[in-house]
Design brief:
Layout (H helix, E strand, L loop, with lengths): L1 H7 L6 H23 L1 H9 L4 H10 L5 H16 L1 H51 L2 H6 L2 H18 L4 H21 L1 H8 L2 H38 L1 H6 L3 H26 L2 H25 L6 H42 L20 E11 L2 E12 L3 E6 L5 H7 L8 E6 L2 E2 L5 H6 L1 E4 L10 H5 L8 H10 L3 H5 L18 H15 L3 E5 L7 H15 L3 E5 L11 E6 L2 E6 L1 H7 L2 H11 L1
Parallel strand pairs: 3-8, 3-9, 6-7, 7-8
Antiparallel strand pairs: 1-2, 1-4, 4-5, 9-10
Length: 606
């Protein structure tokens, strides 16, 4: 229940509506109680032939406290003047009116509650997505994408179905039980005390079963996340799956998880469905015992008559369903709490890339970008070790070396996709950790090896993150990136949808759109991470020409696989195992006859 109370904090802005919901429920219960309160007087006056004088005396003795005697007096008065049939008609009309009011206020309460329930879920989804956007790149390399999608979809749905859908139960049903139990105590407190002896037993049994349900539910959500991961991997890698005849291999992986999930969910369902029949059975047992015990009181002639006993039973039957609903809701909440545990784990994930409260704004890039004795480790693995590098404004620095040398890590550290483990990175003499994060990243444009496009129009993919731009500016950026002509050849021009991950475009087209995106952003610092390595020769030439235009008058950090593209760099940094082993221009490094020359010769041989 503690975790659910955190969900309810989302309702802090709706206190007025919550009060109205509570009042509507209370009125609904009150009118329902009134209709039942007429049962005993009607039975006594109409069918038991109670003496008129005794009725009047009872009414006069409990004018302020006993509504039943007041109804008795009224009914007797009507019988005396208009007859029993007229009195019965009045009672029937009153019961109908009370029932109409009861259900009217019940509808009003639900009409108020549903928007509140949906508001909680909306806020929860928004908080989860905002949290994911704020987390560092390293988090997503650790987590399975399928598991994250499962938390955003299935776990939220589970919270909606298992917790939020029974929210009204935890407000309305306890209120109903309290009101009707109060009337039962008023009618006969001895019988009600006897009743309470059996309720702890029922609560204990239900609690034991629901505790095991929560554990199984958590396991089911984890298994579903794993299954979604396999689905995602298979869809993304379908070309590889078919090329290597791995359909059976992937199907076996999927079936293993699917069968495990099948068994787990069957276990959960078996325990969940036990709630309703168990609570009903225990309710009937209690009713039978009450009939026996109450009958003894009636037969003993203590003043507790048969009509009052029947009314008592009617009130008791009105709390059986609330107790039954509460027990079922308790099972569902335990199931939903398992999903909520997984959601809270994401929401409470520590964000290692944070902005300091006194972070300094950055207006622009004026002088230099400096790595000062930078080290970086990923877990126990050392990636960079004592990197020192200064990049002056307007210069182009190329990072070359074998795979795993640490080139991409250097590029990721500049916009703080990761934070350094030791040393510092300075921009115009200010540590990047002391800068406002948005200002820092606004200075940089990134064009990676894998062009990332979203399933949106080409126009929206180009203006991504720029806050919008005119059609003219977008077209100018596309022309610089050599993308305008092929875009205009599309049936819908700039409004053409790129498809899932840009699937409707070729590799070269996708890359040129990402370059147009960087051109439109117009950053003073440009990071190019092997931007042409995955392209064919013709596409590489077009894209490289677009990159050359993009690089004009900008400070550039280029990660190069094809060394022919960086021969004109102002400085080439050769890296090996996280260290700088050579640095200089193309000509000086060739003259050194070291690692760089060997790398060049290897590519020329190819």
């Amino acid at each position: 229940m503690k975790k659910i109370s955190r969900l309810l904090t989302y309702l802090a802005d709706y206190k007025g509506k919550i009060a109205l919901y509570f009042t509507s429920n209370l009125l609904s219960i009150f009118f329902g109680m009134l209709s039942l309160a007429m049962l005993a007087p009607v039975l006594q006056v109409l069918f038991m032939g109670e003496n008129a004088q005794s009725v009047k005396a009872a009414a006069n003795s409990k004018v302020a406290t006993d509504i039943m005697n007041q109804i008795k007096a009224f009914v007797h008065q009507v019988i005396a003047t208009d007859g029993k049939l007229t009195a019965l008609a009045y009672i029937c009309v009153a019961v109908v009116v009370f029932t109409v009011f009861k259900n009217l206020f019940l509808y009003i309460s639900l009409y108020i509650l549903n928007p509140l329930r949906n508001a909680v879920l909306r806020r929860l989804r928004d908080d989860m997505f905002t949290k994911m956007l704020s987390l560092p790149i390293g988090f997503f390399t650790e987590e399975r994408k399928g598991d994250l999608i499962s938390k955003m979809t299935n776990d939220i749905n589970e919270v909606e179905l298992s917790i939020m859908s029974v929210l009204e139960v935890f407000i309305r049903e306890p209120l109903t039980i309290i009101v009707y139990l109060g009337m039962m105590v008023y009618i006969n407190y001895q019988l009600t005390i006897f009743l309470f002896l059996f309720l702890p037993v029922a609560g204990f049994v239900i609690g034991r079963i629901s505790k095991s349900l929560r554990k199984s539910s958590n396991l089911a959500q984890e298994q579903l996340g794993g299954m979604l991961g396999v689905i995602d991997e298979t869809l993304v890698g379908m070309r590889v799956v078919k090329a290597f005849g791995a359909e059976r291999h992937q199907h076996l992986r999927f079936m293993k998880l699917n069968n495990t999930l099948f068994r787990t969910r069957n276990t959960i369902a078996a325990r969940r469905e036990l709630a309703s029949p168990m609570s009903e059975t225990m309710g009937i047992i209690v009713v039978s015992i009450i009939l026996w015990f109450g009958g003894r009181i009636v037969f003993a002639g203590t003043g507790f008559d048969g009509a009052s006993f029947l009314t008592y039973i009617a009130y008791f039957t009105m709390i059986i369903n609330p107790f039954k609903n509460l027990s079922s809701a308790f099972y569902n909440v335990q199931k939903g709490t398992a999903a909520l545990d997984r959601i809270e784990k994401l929401l409470h994930t520590e964000n290692t890339i944070t902005e300091r409260p006194d972070a300094k704004p950055i207006a622009g890039f004026e002088d230099s970008l400096e790595f000062r004795n930078v080290t970086f480790a990923y877990g126990d693995k050392q990636i960079l070790n004592g990197l020192n590098l200064t990049i002056k404004k307007g210069k182009m620095v190329a990072l070359v070396g074998a795979s795993g040398a640490g080139k991409s890590t250097v590029a990721d550290l500049i916009p703080r996709f990761h934070d350094v483990s030791g040393g510092e990175i300075l921009i115009d003499g200010v540590n990047v950790k002391d800068c406002k994060l948005d200002d820092l990243r606004r200075l940089m444009g990134v064009v990676g090896q894998d062009p990332i496009l979203f399933n949106d129009t080409i126009y929206n993919n180009i203006i991504l993150g720029t806050g919008g731009a005119t059609q003219e500016r977008v077209e100018d950026a596309a022309r610089i990136a050599h993308a305008h002509n092929f875009i205009m050849q599309k049936p819908e021009g700039y409004q053409t949808v790129a498809g899932d991950r840009g699937a409707r475009l070729s590799g070269g087209e996708r890359q040129r759109i990402t370059i147009a995106r960087a051109v439109l952003k117009n950053p003073p610092i440009l990071i190019l991470d092997e931007a042409t390595s995955s392209l064919d020769t013709e596409s590489e030439r077009i894209v490289q020409d677009a990159i050359n235009k993009l690089m004009e008058n900008r400070t550039c950090v280029v990660i190069a696989h094809r060394l022919s593209t960086v021969q004109h760099a102002d400085e080439i940094i050769v890296m090996e195992k996280g260290r700088v082993v050579e640095r200089g221009t193309h000509a000086t490094l060739i003259a050194k006859d070291g690692m760089y020359k060997r790398l060049v010769e290897l590519q020329q041989v190819k």
